[in-house]
Design goal:
The structure holds two protein chains of two kinds. By secondary structure, chain A is mainly α. Chain A is built from five helices and no strands. Chain A has one domain: Four Helix Bundle (Hemerythrin (Met), subunit A) (Up-down Bundle), CATH 1.20.120.80. The radius of gyration of chain A is 21 Å and the shape is elongated. Chain B is an all-alpha fold. In chain B, helix 1 runs antiparallel to helix 2. Chain B is flat and about 55 Å long. Classes of the chains: A mainly alpha, B mainly alpha. At the A-B interface, helix 1, helix 2 and helix 5 of A face helix 1, helix 2 and helix 3 of B.
Chain lengths: 214, 126
């Protein structure tokens, strides 16, 4: 009778990721399927935001007599929000670094900090939308408002989804379901979070700063 | 019989030491913060002589160029260092930047469809 030596699926594995100095995964591309799938999603998401930014650029000047436009922007306030989101990318990458070296407590702290900074950003966006609405800029007020709210709203939904994913990781970690061997899960969520940040880098310049400057 | 082999080429080798890697992340974040401060400074120092450089209908070409350049550098730094594209396989860079290039082509296609270049750069009211 053969001895029952079932493989331990959760046994520690060496880090195969090329980005961490590993030899590469045993796949045709040498990249793990999870990571490749996330990058394909992010590549396609570029097209979504490309379309939304294009629409905004076409409609950024409201037709005369149809209500306010970029003159409502509060650049100092939005700058602080942008800085908060930018710094959340640092806490995210530190969360990835923490779990890769087996520091589970540090990982939880950095993940929670990232979610907290994301929540501050979203709170700022809700405040901004509310302030604009009170100034008479509703979703259908003019072509500028529709394009602006759709673009920044879609970005806000992405940030909110990211916060939910981050909090889920913290919950998984407390339940003992997230450890060094599953660091890739944190890295994959991190890729999504950094993407949300780079999209905001583009929005902040193209939607807020350039129209106000020109 | 041919076999598929993975090409492990990357733009740069990742830092192996944990402390060195975290130090790199903090330096990148500080540079990003400084670049953001310069971006915001263009709003507060709106009378700076270089910002208004331009010609004809292209006023403020100077400030727009600076903002676009800063945006591109910040984008590249986050994608390269925080998303590890510099240290990862070039296939991933290809996937991501292909998406960006397609998005740019969509923008150009829409501009052409709206005949934006025929109306002097401004979309005429419908």
């Amino acid at each position: 009778m053969a001895s029952s030596t079932a493989p331990d699926l959760f046994a520690p594995m060496p880090d195969l990721d090329v980005a961490h100095g590993g030899p590469g995964y045993p796949t045709n591309t040498g990249i793990s399927n999870t990571k490749l799938a996330m990058w394909l999603f992010l590549g396609s998401d570029c097209l979504l935001f490309g379309g939304l930014i294009t629409t905004f650029l076409l409609y950024k000047d409201p037709l005369p007599g149809t209500g306010p436009g970029t003159d409502l922007f509060d650049i100092p306030f939005t700058s602080v929000s942008s800085f908060v989101l930018l710094m959340s990318s640092l806490t995210m990458v530190l969360a990835v670094a923490a779990i890769e070296k087996g520091d589970l407590r540090g990982n939880r702290i950095w993940l929670a900090a990232t979610a907290g900074l994301g929540a501050i950003f979203i709170s700022g966006q809700i405040y901004e939308f509310n302030a604009f609405y009170e100034e008479g800029l509703g979703y259908t007020t003019n072509r500028f408002s529709s394009a602006f709210y759709t673009l920044t709203g879609f970005h806000g939904v992405h940030v909110t989804a990211g916060i939910i994913m981050l909090l889920s990781l913290v919950w998984f970690s407390f339940r003992g379901m997230l450890n060094q061997e599953r660091a890739e899960a944190v890295e994959t969520v991190g890729l999504y979070w950094h993407f949300v940040d780079v999209v905001w880098i583009v929005i902040f310049a193209i939607v807020y700063l350039i129209p106000v400057a020109s | 019989m041919s076999t598929l082999t993975a090409d492990n080429a990357t733009d740069a080798a990742p830092p192996h030491d944990d402390v060195e890697r975290e130090k790199l992340y903090v330096i990148v974040a500080l540079v990003l913060a400084a670049l953001t401060a310069i971006e915001v400074a263009t709003y507060f120092a709106e009378d700076f002589v270089l910002w208004g450089w331009g010609w004809g209908d292209h006023e403020n070409f100077g400030v727009i160029s600076v903002l676009m350049l800063l945006m591109a550098v910040k984008f590249w730094m986050v994608a390269g260092f925080f998303m590890h594209l510099r240290f990862d396989k070039k296939l991933l860079s290809g996937i991501f930047y292909s998406g960006l290039a397609l998005a740019l082509l969509v923008y150009i296609a829409v501009l052409l469809a709206f005949r934006i270049f025929d109306s002097g750069g401004h979309m005429s009211p419908l």
